[in-house]
Amino acid sequence: MASSLKFGCMQELIEKTYKLTQKSLNDIYKKRKTAQFFQKIMWVITGLFFVASLLNMSVSYFPDIVNNIPEFFKQFQPSASNPYAMTYPLIGLMLLLYITTFMFTKAFQKFKIKETETITKMVKLLFPKVDFAQNTMAPVNQIVTSKLFAWIKKEAPIYSYGQIRSKVNYIEINIADIGIVEENVSNTFIDALMRIPFLNMFVILYQYVFKNIVSGKSADNIYYTYRGMFCWLQFKKNLNGHTVILPSNQRAKLDRVLSLNFKEEQKINLEDPRFTNQFIVYSTDQVEARYVLSTALMERIVALKEKFNQPIMLSFQNKQLYLAVKNENGLFSFPSGKLDTINTIKELANDIKTALEIAKELKMK
Amino acid sequence: MQMLENLPWYGYIILALGIASYAYKYFKTAKEGYDESDLKTAKFNVAQESNLTKQEEFAIAFYTPIAEWFGADTNTLTFLNQKTSNRYLQRWRMDSPEGYWDMTEYFMKDGRRWYYNFIYNMIKTQPEAQWDTLMKDYFGENDRAFNYLKVLKTNKALNELKQKGLVTFDAELDLGIAGYDAGVLVGQARKAFTANIISEDEALKVINFARELALEHFSSWEEFGKSFIIGFAFDQQHRERSYREEVYHMYKQVLEKPESPWNTIDWPQV
To answer: How far is CA A282 from the centre of its chain?
Structure first.
């Protein structure tokens, strides 16, 4: 009865929030479209500029190319009467690039400001009792200490899009929306390629130009190795080591081994098939891991994953619980596509509500 | 030089602009270089001999971020040496027993929290049009009060702390700045004792008062620390940014390092 009352109350709040922000959502959708349009144009011009520069450089190494190029491009060949023929298109592209970069920056700024304002309004309407701040410093210490991210280092680029703090029954919970660029295998490989002259031009063309042209994500969301929710809260069990629960997939396993950062960990084999089908557990102590992960808690973790409907990671250590829920769009940013439906607010409300109730959901004391 | 002689008229303008912009940048950068903060590593020095009780050691720890900036011990009543202590007390006009007690009584009774509490609540609850009148009614013609109003009104201190990651939420300002007053009382008592202005008993009485003040307002080092650093940022906006940056850097280490007194001494559970 009490929970249905609470649900009804939340539903009312969602509807009220939707009414008050519907116009802004529509506006954000348009602003995002404009920003993405200029983002694509800007990168297309950058691509053309790079290709033109590459061709310009190639001409001196492969003079035969000149004879085989289509007629249209021959007018850009330097000659005695027009020695700067190749330079003019490059200057033209530079000019175009300057204009589109300016337009993109302006459009992106407007989109982000509107998005930030609307998210603030929504969170305050949906959860009036929590503390909420945007553009805060990322909780680097907690992220590194959590040991959830295999490749993370304290100096890695970690960004925060906002943070919520709430106290329920003397338990303080923090929820942050973070983006991390880890120096993982793929990024290390790209870094190595970038050091090779000439080849690095093609890496730039793929990594920056091509990706930005084809991606449907907003410009700030393209390079993260992890984007999503990160929560931390205290519980009473005092642990000596750490126990980490990750999604059971090859990538998570490989990252854990290849990063060489967790040599002290062992894989923990548990009995609950529903749990082990979805999660893999690493811990510094077999006994402690089993002490933490009771059968009941494993069931609750499976249920929690279903509630979030996204991959989740958990870590227990030194009276602290850490939880990360992957979300490609981020918690305090809107997904791409049409936004003016009540589902946009329902999803935000569900994610925050579920996170705020983790202690209750997992029956943490 | 011949090349310069052949320049068109606009060439000289471009050249002059180039030289001016370089000179501006050079002197600006040089100045910033001079003001650059010296970010030291906290050492948490421990003297071999200490006759302080656990309660006194706990209260001495209130001043740790600034004591570490000076490089003082964490477990003694004395503070570095007489010369350094005297220099500090002279600046605050506390280098005589009268001067010391005047200032200490003020910090015990009112301190910076007297300003902060009134201005902060006024900004939160009263319309801006009335602030000037309310300020004059409460503080009279008090320049310090109006400077503090400016700091709180413009969120200068808050934004600085947010940028450094020392404060996350606006609501954290509700903690007040009693922690800073308690820290200042401890620091001044240690220095006055070291400079032979007050006796050991007198210094310990002041330190005990600071302890009571902190226990009355806070229930953890985290809360105390927030209040301390908010008070510091609020009170020290007139100082060079580099000094504040140095203390912020120390504060972070005091919060995080396991050997810090804030992590080795438990906050008493009342």
So the answer is: 24
